[in-house]
């Protein structure tokens, strides 16, 4: 029988959790400094987590960590960790821990439960919708540009229209992924852009690009350099709808990789929202590896 006991001291669990995270990020291709920065971001919120020891007939078989917090005015739960030790897998402990976490969070008012997967979880979370993936790829040499496609810096005159359209696209991505309501997504979009681009086009360590072919604008790009040590984060590599299906998606990625190298970074990383299967397939074919996958389920069902 699977039982759960809340830990008063989670030091042992945290050491094991961070060790596993470090191994996962390193296996994904991050160097030691970038992996440590990723762990620091996770560590900042661990103090609020409730950690339970999973036991079977008095023997510890794993851990499960949960938290409920305010998310844009609504309570949302999160499974921070769910780990069953190798010798005890496949005996129903994983499913029992998932069910316990769902009940624990629902009992505290959470309407949604999120989880961030950094390693395969089998079929355990198949019923959870994919909300997004963090992808990355090392860029060792300048990519071959697509014939006829050029990338140039965005101008001040182009920035306001780009900002407005980027906010609309961001809101649509969030809503399509099922992460928030349209109203919540608009508020998040306004907050995020104000924080990320406080000086607009002049914000340091950001590159904003316009992609063109034959003098016609076909897309845009927005990249943040030094997001992690040696890592550029691509907030947006966008091809206008009327120009899709012509291979320009690869051209946008090549422009992002060129900007990454020009800024002195060696890795390009970005998020692709759930529901965008076309983009996911493109990134997979281009060698972009999944570092993390975010999933969630509605607890009000």
How is the secondary structure organized here?
Layout lengths: L1 E5 L4 H18 L3 H15 L3 E7 L2 E13 L2 E11 L8 H15 L4 E6 L11 E10 L10 E5 L5 H18 L5 H15 L9 E8 L2 E13 L2 E9 L8 H15 L4 E7 L3 H9 L3 E10 L3
Parallel strand pairs: 4-5, 10-11
Antiparallel strand pairs: 1-2, 2-3, 3-4, 5-12, 6-11, 6-12, 7-8, 8-9, 9-10
Key phrases:
301 residues; alpha+beta; Aminopeptidase; 2 domains; 12-stranded mixed beta sheet; 35% helix; dioxygenase activity
- Work out the number of β strands: 12
Q: For the record, give the distance between the C-alpha atoms at the N and C termini, rounded to a whole number.
A: 27 Å
Q: Quickly count the helices.
A: 7
H/E element order: EHHEEEHEEEHHEEEHEHE
GO molecular function: acyltransferase activity, transferring groups other than amino-acyl groups; dioxygenase activity
Domain N-acetyltransferase: 149-301
Protein name: Aromatic ring-opening dioxygenase LigA
Organism: Streptomyces cellostaticus
Describe the structure.
Residues 149-301 form the N-acetyltransferase domain. InterPro entries: Acyl_CoA_acyltransferase, Bact_Acetyltransf, GNAT_dom. The protein is α+β, with helices and mostly antiparallel strands. It has two domains: 2-126, Gcn5-related N-acetyltransferase (GNAT) (Aminopeptidase, 3-Layer(aba) Sandwich); 138-298, Aminopeptidase (3-Layer(aba) Sandwich). Helix content is 35%, strand content 35%. The chain contains seven helices and twelve strands. The chain has helices at 11-28, 32-46, 93-107, 159-176, 182-196, 248-262, 277-285; strands at 2-6, 50-56, 59-71, 74-84, 112-117, 129-138, 149-153, 206-213, 216-228, 231-239, 267-273, 289-298. Strands 1-2-3-4-5-12-6-11-10-9-8-7 form a twelve-stranded mixed β-sheet. Helix 6 (248-262) links the parallel strand 10 (231-239) and strand 11. Helix 1 packs antiparallel against helix 2 and helix 4 (159-176) packs across helix 5. The chain is elongated. The model has no long low-confidence stretch (mean pLDDT 92).
